[in-house]
Design goal:
- The protein is of the alpha+beta class.
- 27% of the residues lie in helices and 26% in strands.
- α1 runs parallel beside α9 and α12 packs across α14.
- The protein is globular and about 80 Å long.
């Protein structure tokens, strides 16, 4: 058995695992991803990522690629944002609704991106490889052991059967809701668990005669069972069909025949004799019929020693609100900079405890919101935006953008949170760079080019000082040099211009104040004005935040 060494091992090559590889490699961390499938799945699964996820991928240079690879089934029609409800696709009567959750309205420089998960994973894999990550499909985790200095994993090449021992400092389990790593660690989960299974296929058929010029972005039909969905995939003839699967006769979904599925597809379309072809979804097995669980749970722990749970291994949320995939992206983003900081020696080991401190409460809240939306709407599309929270079966359901942008972290990696403010989220426009919140978007100008304030964040720590805050810039430059820390300082009104003059109010400080932003774009600490000893104040904050005290 040969031996290898990597800094971080990632188990699972789906959305979360590939995103983790991108962010880790972006931070210069040697990363290995292993995935037992021979390639990314061909099935679209999730459709679209919200603007916050686009913001995160924008940091690593992927925003243009995302919009250049929008799903053809979505962009091919002006009715792409229409949700319809009907008995079948061929029905005369359609009840129309909107898929869009409302305009983000100046909260973000990014927009919703209608890209299917299969296309997104291809882009992530390519970007991770470009950044130096080692991606190995057709490779499974045969076992692992933790030690005081790292994790040793045994990897098996499924084509040859050869095994390799790989040692890494840490391991990220992104191996899905059936996570073998989580099971091995003995981590239990809370929540209702799996509520139902869905059966899904991609099929080819000419539906133009049926649609008569209509081409909805998503259709909920009541045949063959209620809440069956049909939506366009790539090209004019490819479609996705999904239905809740209830095995009245006890037949497991794995034993469903193609003939049965073809009959259900024709029933959903409303044409008994329709010419339909099912497409292969997993080339290595030839599988055409896939099943996916719908349910909700949150792992009781997100960390066990040197192993971290992320994505569906850490939590499952129902599709109502489309929070699941974006939650996995946020997990990877939160964890990557912390691992990189510890591995570079910039931060103490205690910083890694804040991953669970921050992401688990947000996961519990997100699960609650998704479950309430599922109960309240009875389907899995995006809820419309509203100005105020509403109550659904005893649960307060917050406006959509508040859930996406307004959550706040409370952990040792945040200083100065208001103990009297225990609200789980705030409307994005109410956020003023309070510690623990996402740093607000604000149009700025740098080197003659208009940017977002968010474009200043991502690679390292950033200190933003007001126009009269030159002392903060000097203090930050000294701290960066002394610590060997990736810390950059900008003076708003100096090297960065604020044409609107809105920065002090938007970031809750005076012209002499400063805001310290973490690599993930969340506010770690701020000073409303200039204290007598700004250098000492900044040094104390950094010692505490980096767990070096």
């Amino acid at each position: 058995m040969s031996d290898e060494q990597k800094r971080v091992l990632v188990v699972g090559g789906g959305l979360t695992g590939l995103t983790a590889a991108v962010f880790l490699a972006w931070h210069g961390v040697s990363t290995l991803v292993v995935e037992r499938h021979t390639d990314t799945l061909l099935h679209p699964r999730a459709r679209g990522i919200n603007p916050r996820s686009v913001e995160l991928l924008r940091q690593v240079g992927l925003e243009e690629d995302l919009h250049a690879n929008l799903s053809m089934g979505v962009v091919a029609t002006e009715s792409a944002d229409q949700l319809v409800r009907a008995e079948t696709l061929a029905a005369e009567e359609y009840v129309l609704d909107s898929l869009a959750p409302g305009d983000v309205g100046g909260v973000s420089p990014c927009s919703w991106c209608a890209i299917d998960q299969d296309r997104l994973e291809v882009l992530l894999r390519k970007r991770a490889t470009e950044l130096g990550a080692d991606i190995r499909f057709g490779t499974e985790l045969a076992g692992f052991e933790q030690g005081p200095d790292g994790v040793t994993a045994v990897l098996r090449d499924l084509s040859s059967g050869n095994e390799t021992a790989v040692t890494g400092a840490y391991l990220i389990a992104a191996d899905g809701w059936r996570s073998g790593v989580r099971t091995r660690l003995g981590v239990r989960f809370t929540g209702p668990g799996v509520l139902m299974e869905t059966l899904s296929v991609v099929f080819e058929a000419d539906l133009e005669p049926v649609l008569r010029g209509r081409r909805p972005g998503l259709a909920f039909v009541s045949r063959p069972v209620d809440k069956t969905i049909v939506f366009p995939h790539d090209g004019d003839r490819a479609w996705v069909f999904g239905m809740p699967y209830y095995a009245a006769d006890g037949t497991p979904v794995g034993d469903v025949t193609e003939e049965q599925v073809l009959r259900w597809v024709r029933e959903a379309v409303g044409v008994p004799g329709l010419d339909v072809t099912l497409k292969v979804q997993i080339p290595q097995t030839g599988a055409k019929i896939l099943s996916f669980p719908i349910g909700g749970y949150t792992a009781e722990r997100f960390r066990s020693g040197r192993v971290f749970l992320a994505g569906d291994a850490a939590r499952m949320v129902p599709p109502s609100g489309a929070f699941g995939g974006s939650s996995g992206i946020a997990d990877a983003h939160n964890l990557a900079w912390k691992l990189a900081s510890v591995l570079r020696g910039e931060a103490g080991e205690g910083l890694l405890d804040t991953y669970e401190e921050e992401r688990r409460p947000v996961s519990l809240f997100t699960l609650e919101q998704a479950m309430a939306r599922m109960v309240g709407r009875g389907d899995g599309e995006h809820p419309g935006e509203s100005e105020t929270a509403v109550e659904v079966d005893g649960t307060v359901v917050h406006p959509y953008w508040s859930v996406v942008f307004g959550y706040r972290y409370r952990s040792a990696a945040v200083l100065g949170t208001d103990p009297h403010d225990q609200e789980p989220v705030h409307a994005p426009r109410e956020l003023r760079a309070q510690p623990g919140s996402r740093a607000p978007h604000l149009p700025l100008v740098r080197d003659g080019r208009e940017i977002s304030a968010l474009d200043l964040f991502g690679e390292g720590w950033v200190l933003l000082a007001g126009e009269e805050g030159a002392a903060w810039v000097t203090a930050a430059e000294d701290a960066a040099a002394r610590r060997g820390l990736r810390l950059t300082a900008h003076r708003v009104g100096g090297d960065v211009q604020d044409p609107s003059g809105g920065w002090p109010a938007r970031y809750g400080v005076e012209d002499t104040g400063a805001v310290l932003v973490r690599p993930d774009g969340f506010v770690a600490w701020r000073s409303a004005g200039l204290p007598p000893a700004p250098r000492a104040a900044l040094e104390r904050a950094l010692d505490s935040l980096l767990q070096l005290g």
